[in-house]
Protein 1
Amino acid sequence: MTFLTKETIVKKIIGTSAFALVTSALVIGPASAQDYPNKPVTAVIQMAPGGPTDLIVRVIQQKMGEELGQALIIENKAGAGGLIGIKNVLSAHADGYTLGIATGSSHGVAPNIYENLPYNPTKDFRPVGTLVMAPGVLVASKAAVPDCRYETFIKKLKENPGEMKYGSAGIGTLAHMTGAYFLAETETDMLHIPYRGLGPAMIDLQGGSIDALFDNISSARAHLKGGKICALAIQSDKRLEEYPSIPTYAELGLPQLNKPTWYGLIARAETPDAVILELNAALNKTLDSESVANLYKGMGVQPFKSTPEEFSALMQEENEFWKNVTEKINFAKLKL
């Protein structure tokens, strides 16, 4: 499996001269935060169980709890394209006991597609650290693409504009917008069917109710073994070692779609510096764990450590990327 290194990505985002600055530690916060944590910490997942966000966060649950000395509790609060979960974190106390999950959807896509987004990704939250870099994968029902070939899929799309259907985790999610970007770049059309998470969408894909899904390899891998769906393209610079038969988008003439996504932990903006440092240290130690690394490798994703400052730079780059995409595809902003 080939990914860009963390250093390469961060230097690309903020420039080599500034790279040294983002590795500096935060100033230690008030004394009241020094006994953190003294009770369980909750991570709110804004997507349904069984989807990539859920699976990726659950890998760190036990080990990070051990590093913190307190249990890490997982709560799924899906709906409204992830907004319900994000708002839940926003309404919690800024004490580090309720964490959120930042994704390309919440901190890249959403700010560029909603007129009245009920949160500001940079002002309302502060980054704790990244979890993984994860390649997205285009999967299709074998009922729609019996030979599992991308060329067959595209041919069918062009011959039947607007008749085939693709699912997503909801309007405005990364799966939805990746699909919209794909359709614009290939000059094809499909009907978008939003779900409350990729897990329910995958069930309908296997049942033949929808034809395609822009999923994450971490959640699609188990279903690929079932024989009812097949992978047509992967977001990666090179074919993954674990999935050598899946061509990259670049091989298929769409290098602009070769953009793996990321996942990370966030907290309320007013969370004390000392708490953020404690969480970041526990998270990075967790990602150093061999058992966690092996689980992620089996999912087709790569552990991706960062400082809070590095994660902030990554989120800013993601926001700019989707700003350019929404402008290119003339996406009309939505109202909540």
Protein 2
Amino acid sequence: MGCATLTPVPEAWRSVPQAARITDLCARVSCASRGATDVKVTDGKLVASGKDLTPQFRAIQSFDVSLERREVAFAAKRSDNFDIGLVSLDGSDIHWVPEDPADETDVQWAPRGNKISFVVHSRTGDLVRTVHIPTSFQLTADFPYTAVRALGWEPAAERYAVVLTSPEASERIERLKYSGEGRESVVAPAVRLDVAIEPLADALLMRPSTLHYGERLPLIVWITETPFEWNDARGALMRNARVACAIVRQPSEAFWTAARAVAWIDLEKVYVVSGAPAPSPAYPGAPLSATSVVADPKIPTGRYRVDDRIVRAPPAIVESVAAGWIAEQLKDRNGPR
């Protein structure tokens, strides 16, 4: 694999092209306006006009005020997860929306009505749930293997727009009815990969949309806490090398067992990319031939080091170094066939 010496990072590996981000949804679509209030979060509590509306929670992620109903909807962490609650501006008991095992965040009132919406972060992607408060009737729009970055209701309160991001496509805007029907693209992603996505044990597996007869692909295992979001470095790697990429929070033994059962994965060519230091011992169940690309704050800026089957790079550029270094290892030295 090379000597354990510091090597200059090639200029092309120091960064990757950045896909355009959507920082202001309501600058792109028409959003309902919100009235000003004096409600705020202080020490984990909702406070209005100097009066505590709620007890202290571990955290309050978001809140929104309906002046028409004189009611606050909020997302609070009571124990392990964020749940959605309702409390009167005049002071009342808290009414909790029937909770989901997953986090529920980014709550807001729909205009001109009695509905709230919030994002549910499920194990297979985000959902937007709309609840009619007087009847508790719920409607859900699902976004498989996708994260919802922002949501804005249209003034007529029949549709909302969302900023989405996913492993195969950078940020974009879609608009739909709150029932989940009538979806349409408003702003297309700057980058979209031509890949198929499927679950593999506790991971999400991306591969080229078309596989050749008898083909076996190198496997990239990309460790991240945000598996449903676009990543510029990972996208650059998949454009520059014909590989499969498993996106996972932490590869388990069950994951490696599942990978071994996939005929088109070449387990002689496995690369594990992590923004954390190399684990000790290595990932349980991983092939002995696997190479790890990891963050190491001891590596000077602009350098990387190869120690046996571990590539170490500064944390700020470890992902771009991984994209460049792995693509270089997989080049066909014999040229096009």
Protein 3
Amino acid sequence: MVIFALKNSALEAIERAQNLAELETSYKAYLGKKGELTLILRSLANLNEAERKVQGKEANDLRNLLEKRFAERKKEIQREEIVIQEKLAIREHVDVTAPGKRLPKGHTHPLTLAQTKAEEIFQTMGFTVAQGPEIETEWYNFDALNIPANHPARDMWDTFWLKPKNAGHLLRTHTSPVQIRYMEKHNPPLRIIAPGRIFRYEATDASHEFNFYQLEGLMVGKEVSVANFKAIIEEFYRQFFGKPVAIRLRPSYFPFTEPSFEVDMRWNKGAWLEMMGAGIVHPNVFRAVGYIPAEWRGFAFGMGLDRLAMMKYQIPDIRLLYSGDLRFLQQF
């Protein structure tokens, strides 16, 4: 009775197996080292000779039957899996001769377009592109630029100070620190531009952002003058906007230049637009980097890349540049 019941349950388990893993589990349950039939075969030694002959024959016959049926079922499952794989292969067939799908092209951000164009123009005039960190020290952002602590000129820059404030770290308010770092490591004469992101604690509107891009420039030599600066900026605007433009210089004040001036540009024969601040490098700035003011002169300037991009591509609101709106970006 035990052998008969075991035979029926084992054969049912073999038929229920849907994959090789399930079949292997059933095999171990009946014919494994601790399988039910294996335990019966081991227990035959405890029977008398007459019982051992009868039950031994029945158990061995069942083992041979199950071994055969397990092997047959294994081949059946393997054939079934091959059929399934072939059907999947047909369904997922790739025609390598078919034309590929054209991937959509990305669009270059207008700020990147403006910065790349500006860098190319200044490089043709002998300027090197310099970079610096966005997290700056108080020394590079203010002190070395002739803006000492408690100087009222610091109110001109709404600064994001990093905690703890007494550590003197901040998000740079201009890329002028790049000029200081570059002059510390290079001897004059030199020409550099420093494009990059800057941060100001300002309210956001159509023409202001707390995070925007600036391009500053510096030229140092023996006989550098305002006339040199004017000629370079006029040529830059001519190439950038693709047409000659008129500019004018208005007296102004910046602590790191003396004299200082604002640069205005006449746009489309209309009103004058303020475009940048500039001036002759202050002697104290040269002293901070180890230059001798009596031997060297230079001019420095700073303009907003955002404004250049807005004017060139007729963008009415600076916030569009940072919106991530694909409808806007796909126009470029």
